[in-house]
Amino acid sequence: MTPPPWREHPADTMTIANNIATLDAAITGSKGSRERFSLDIPRTWHTEIHRDCKHIPVPSYVGNYRGCQDPYLRGYGVMFGAFLGTPPSEVRDALETFATSLDAALTRLDETMQSPAAATPSRVNSAVEQVARHYADWLRIHPFADGNGRTARVLANWILARYWQPLVLPGRPPVDRGGLIAATTPAIALSDYRPLTRYLRTRLVAARRASSRQQP
Fold this sequence. Notes:
The chain is mostly helical and 216 residues long.
């Protein structure tokens, strides 16, 4: 069975943007939450991002990972830019490795930042480094048939909100999409996370400034 490809339909663009705005608002409202990461969380995000979309070729594409037992996703391969996502048969193991890595990183960060006052610049910088690494690793796997970048940006926001930081990659389309792609490419291609880390630090500074201007 050849799975039909999924590419975002223009008629769904505004629905997706509105759904992401709702997710961003929920993340902002839960700053400091210490929910333990599991692979069910991105599945929930993916479902919420694509809620009420009318032009998804196969309903099971939403909220399910490539390589699962669904007949359309079992063998679904993806290309993104010049990169080939993880083969479907290896997605499950790659995701389990990802989840173990992120859970360990969050445990270490949680121990050092147990209150807003403990979220010092150096400690937040450590969190940004983990965001860069796991953002790029998620994209390298590309576990969904589509919507991987959308989900990765929600993940980045979710991690930093955990440490009382503003949304670093809000909305849809992302701010400075070209700059984000350029910074992410070395991380995906070479596992060089430094350009992406620097980029995310710049975005975080901008987000803090915007947040301070909005405060009465």
